[in-house]
Specification:
The chain is α/β, with parallel strands linked by helices and 392 residues long. The protein contains 14 helices and ten strands. A four-stranded mixed β-sheet has the order 1-2-3-4. The chain has a three-stranded mixed β-sheet with strand order 5-6-7. A three-stranded mixed β-sheet has the order 8-9-10. The radius of gyration is 26 Å and the shape is globular. The two termini are 27 Å apart.
Amino acid sequence: MAGTGVTLFRVRGIRIAVDFSWFVVLFLIIFWLSTSYRDELDLAQSDSEPYFLAVASALLFFGSILLHELGHAFVAVRKGIGVSSITLWMFGGVARLERDSDSPGTEFKIAVAGPLVSGVIVLVCAGVFLLIDGSDSLWDAALGRDDATRSGPAAVVAWLGAINLLVLIFNLVPAFPLDGGRIARAIAWRRTGSRDSGTRFAATLGEWFGLFLILAGLGYFLVYLGDIIGGIWLAFVGFILRGAAKSAIAQTELTSRIEGISVADVMDRQPVAIPEEASIEQALDEYFLRYRSPWFPVVDAAQHVVGLVDRPSADKVPTVERTSASVRDVVARDSGSLTVSEDAPLESVLGNEALRRLGALIATDADGQISGVLTIDAIGRALRSQTPAGVP
């Protein structure tokens, strides 16, 4: 889903976007809540207040989902994992991490951050409601019962707290790819010492939970014939979760072939890098024209990677300035996502965003100096070499 939808803004360099399916859900929530608020607050059909309350509720709900995903993202960034985007869509939000966690502890902290944010939102909503409307009607207002409250703001806060509580409970189900499933994966990973075993365990739980939701949706549809949308929606959520879990298991079968192989085992140990003090003319003549690569890593005097430079950036420099301008002036300083430790397990880079985008990663040694280049072709050769004969 990365790269799709409409970009809204950026938070600390993280692209915040909405998928087109988000607009459909936004409309459905507003339509449903406007009717619910009108009945709950006993307002006339001509009164516009329910629509304003419904719009506010829908926007606050998606704002809380965004905060949930930002919880994951900020912890990931603190652990040295880049986050390229957060996309809101019909089933919530997705934070696109640039690489996988490198330890079960990191996986656990990233996974639990979102539910913790949702829990704080629930507590804040409960506290605000008590200040607005008192404690007697809190439970009834959260359930949307008629005459539970006569205050529009209190009704919005109660609904927002209730829906976030539902999100919290649902996300804590130990079924991959839900947050609870990722927590289960981290625990299984620590106990077994294998990322693949942990993923396989959590994804299997996800498969069964998805099947349960599908059957529950069909049962709901048969019992409550008047609520067709509810049953179909529940079954559809189960279908999506089951598909994601099956994909995770399939990927695990792939990565298990290269378990035990490190980046250093397959990387090219003769990387070509441009010194940051080199002139643009030198970069064009001695590197881009000679090696025909679309980009090169840029290193400082100590051979530490400082970023990358691509051909379009070099070409943009006016011809008369290319002898005086240096590569340092046009380098894209995103070395954090560009590099990978040469000791890292090879399977840990398969989901790397920069690898998909650039086609290669720069390997560094324990001192942070450039030691090789890891290409998609090299990973493909490693996978093929570990595949038994006759297996596609």
